[in-house]
């Protein structure tokens, strides 16, 4: 296994931040993963596993070992009677590109992850924040997560319940932060049609373009069209998608805010009410604003961008200013969705 030293991470995170890692390596097989745990660079340094770097902000150089997850493989598992004839279990290794797993599923006519098409990143990072989009989330289909405890090298399988998945959240982002490496996940997908097109942007797009939805692939294609037209491409301008989570509030707060902002958008979800963080940021005057090398995207207020040459501290600083002004204006605290490192 090659260990590189003093490595520039600019091409390994979608913000394009040029932080340096003291050591960098990659694991491409289970044998290499085993070897990794024996290396002095692994034992003696702090370490972080990285997928595609599409949900991280390196706020400074990383004085430890960065391990790129390149474990590949997708297979259909032989399932017992408990899975039933209408479902299929698919196991994917953590270093697979998430969208390739979506393609694998929709090409075979399976339903369940088509709404999550084109989310950047790897399979192994998907449970970290219970990835979600267009009215679906990983939690709807996750069966289990295979992992390795970083301190001991012991294997552990987490059931979906043990992952404590929430809105852009999981046990791996909280109690067990940096404690487990996710090596593989298993999904339970439906062989029978399970259309989920109630999310407004998606249903409007389907209606407007008169798209016939007969296969999960039709939904996947529609989601890809929407995403390509709406979201800034990190290859063109550095970003990590939504920088903050949307904000869930109590009914009393919604009433209070609607009395001041009658046109405020809000959505009922799981008994709570969600206010789009992008709206709060826009109302606080940040949309399209630029400070030096960093700024807020002109069309998506939730997306912080690197206009070129920014460092992580500048982005963190801008994020803190946004949090402070939203707190001052609305009394609501924005929580980053991006992992600050
Ligand atoms: C343009 C754009 C659009 C996006 N849209 C969405 C969206 O619609 N919905 C959504 O949910 N997210 C979205 N994201 C965020 C991002 O795509 C997801 O969070 C994705 O799952 C991150 O995968 P990654 O491999 O890039 O993770 P990384 O950024 O490499 O890592 C993220 C975190 O997970 C940890 N980690 C990574 N792999 C492992 C592993 N195998 N084991 C343990 N820890 C690990 C890292 O240490 C880090 O803390 C978007 C990002 C971008 C840039």
From TrEMBL:
The keyword Oxidoreductase applies. Pfam families: FAD_binding_4, MurB_C. Residues 16-192 form the FAD-binding PCMH-type domain. InterPro entries: FAD-bd_PCMH, FAD-bd_PCMH-like_sf, FAD-bd_PCMH_sub1, FAD-bd_PCMH_sub2, MurB, MurB_C, MurB_C_sf, Oxid_FAD_bind_N. It comes from the Bacteria. One of its GO terms (cellular component) is cytosol. GO terms for molecular function: FAD binding; UDP-N-acetylmuramate dehydrogenase activity. Its EC number is 1.3.1.98. Keywords: Cell cycle, Cell division, Cell shape, Cell wall biogenesis/degradation, Cytoplasm, FAD, Flavoprotein, NADP, Oxidoreductase, Peptidoglycan synthesis. Pathway: Cell wall biogenesis; peptidoglycan biosynthesis. The keyword Magnesium does not apply. Cell wall formation. Belongs to the MurB family. This is UDP-N-acetylenolpyruvoylglucosamine reductase. It comes from Candidatus Nomurabacteria bacterium RIFCSPHIGHO2_12_FULL_37_29. The lineage of its organism: Bacteria, Candidatus Nomuraibacteriota.
């Amino acid at each position: 296994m090659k260990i590189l030293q003093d490595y520039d991470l600019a091409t390994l995170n979608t913000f394009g931040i040029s932080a340096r890692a003291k050591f960098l390596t990659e694991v491409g097989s289970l044998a290499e993963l085993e070897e990794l745990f024996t290396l002095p660079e692994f034992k003696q340094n702090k370490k972080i596993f990285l997928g595609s770097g599409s949900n991280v902000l390196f706020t400074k150089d990383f004085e430890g070992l960065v391990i790129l997850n390149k474990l590949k493989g997708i297979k259909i598992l032989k399932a017992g009677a408990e899975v039933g004839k209408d479902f299929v279990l698919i196991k994917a290794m953590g270093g697979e590109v998430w969208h390739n797993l979506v393609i694998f599923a929709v090409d075979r006519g399976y339903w369940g992850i088509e709404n999550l098409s084109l989310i950047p990143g790897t399979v192994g990072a998907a449970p970290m924040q219970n990835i979600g989009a267009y009215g679906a989330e990983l939690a709807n289909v996750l069966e289990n997560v295979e992992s390795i405890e970083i301190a001991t090298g012991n294997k552990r399988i987490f059931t979906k319940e043990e992952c404590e998945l929430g809105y852009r959240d999981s046990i791996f982002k909280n109690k067990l932060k940096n404690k487990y490496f996710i090596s593989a996940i298993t999904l339970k997908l439906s062989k029978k049609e399970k259309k989920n097109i109630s999310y407004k942007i998606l249903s409007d797009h389907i209606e407007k373009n008169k798209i016939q939805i007969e296969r999960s692939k039709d939904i996947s294609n529609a989601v890809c069209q929407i995403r390509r037209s709406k979201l800034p491409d990190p290859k063109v301008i550095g970003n990590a998608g939504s920088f903050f989570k949307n904000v869930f509030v109590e009914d009393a707060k919604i009433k209070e805010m609607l009395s001041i902002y009658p046109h405020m958008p809000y959505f009922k979800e799981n008994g709570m009410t969600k206010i789009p963080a992008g709206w709060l940021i826009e109302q606080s005057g940040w949309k399209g604003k630029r400070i030096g090398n960093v700024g807020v995207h002109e069309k998506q207020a939730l997306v912080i961008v690197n206009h070129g040459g920014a460092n992580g501290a500048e982005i963190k600083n801008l994020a803190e200013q946004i949090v402070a002004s939203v707190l001052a204006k609305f009394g609501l605290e924005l929580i980053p969705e991006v992992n600050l490192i």
